[in-house]
């Protein structure tokens, strides 16, 4: 089974949503009231033409906008963050020389070469889809607010590239932070995968490890720092309590708790998705 | 979300394998020892280039061979039967005029127009993949045995088109029967979908209805007529016992039993897949 970069990205989306448990997020055994596992299957199928385009197109913003437009369900967000990570990774993978590994410099180039046009498409995406972003009024984050539709003209006036937008939001957004750190956490997480576990289990466990190491920024935006930190600590406990091999049962309990409290660490799931994509080149196999 | 015919076929494969319970078959909650839900995700992703080609190519056999070559895992069969149904359906859908419904005459044309070349590719597929087909020696089925590799020359010598191969195997194979009856069961099953149920449930229930109406030919080949008939009757009981809304619990029990006995109604799952494809045009929605 030899897959193109776009196919690997699609498979990453499917493996991410299928792996269970992923406390607080949708998986193959867990749907929410308004969004289900099936929506994520549909979104993964619908995303493919854009993923394919990412192999060739120069404009990450344009491809991202296309992907968002084609994957949403009545404005509900399925893969917004995941696509924002996967699209530059696909491009970098296509441009990279090694067969097995994406060069880290290449991914830096790809995101740093984004333009003002890319930003415009990025801002336009928020008109289609309902992504929770709190107002940045009265904060130090100096970019046009994505919640204000006519801010596209301000993006143009200020000549902000998509990379610059990400730089300025990196302090509050884990996906933006990946853009500005050469996808550091995504690359690190590849080393977390344990090929001796079955595929679903090693993906779940990597999710929990990611959740335990940094506060999820989506949780932080929606529920505040204190709860984000509480979730991080709880994930740590899931992973490191005794007996160690009881992590899965403890993860299922944390899943129930987070679902009841409507806490959804979406950024961690997005980063998991990009680490699966990177892992499919060398450590993750369906065998 | 507007999908191409190839995308609809891919989504059908994903929805089929995800719907649970499907007594005896893999679903999102049920893997076997040697084959898992994840293999089916991988196979659905890997099949896409061939599905896309089916939108344009004249040769069903060639596209089918490509699909089989790209989707198998160490020769394990994932979507052999499903692809044999989906590929002509995609072609018919592309050639059909109505936006919503595949014309039944079109699908008849597509399969009846297959050539000897298509048969050759079909026979070649059995060299790649481990599909259980019992020997037809000492039976009335007068085609070259797919289990004998050098039988390709006999196919050529006898000038057998793929449609003729299917005609001659229709009496023992449910997928071949679909080819020769204008995909009758697949079209009928579209009416079984109940849009008021959730998507996974209506697909599961349609599977059980299909299983209850005809003996599964894969079970029949592997375990004999008596067991195939027993399974059919048990599926009927699942569906029609009181209380009617207890069908899902009863289906889960039948699933356990069939898995323990290693009985896998694969043909029914294949036909379910093609009926999902047809249903996606009008009654099945991810909404």
Describe it.
- 2 copies of one chain form a homodimer.
- By secondary structure, chain A is mainly α.
- The first copy, chain A, contains 16 helices and no strands.
- The first copy, chain A, has helices spanning 5-18, 37-46, 48-54, 60-71, 80-95, 104-112, 116-128, 152-157, 162-169, 174-180, 184-190, 199-213, 217-223, 225-240, 247-260, 266-279.
- In chain A, helix 1 crosses helix 3.
- Chain A is globular and about 55 Å long.
- The relative contact order of chain A is 0.15.
- The mean pLDDT of chain A is 93.
- Chain A binds chain B through residues 1-3, 7, 10-11, 14-15, 18, 28-29, 36-39, 41-46, 48, 70-74, 198-200, 286-287, and chain B through 1-3, 7, 10-11, 14-15, 18, 28-29, 36-39, 41-46, 48, 70-74, 198-200, 286-287.
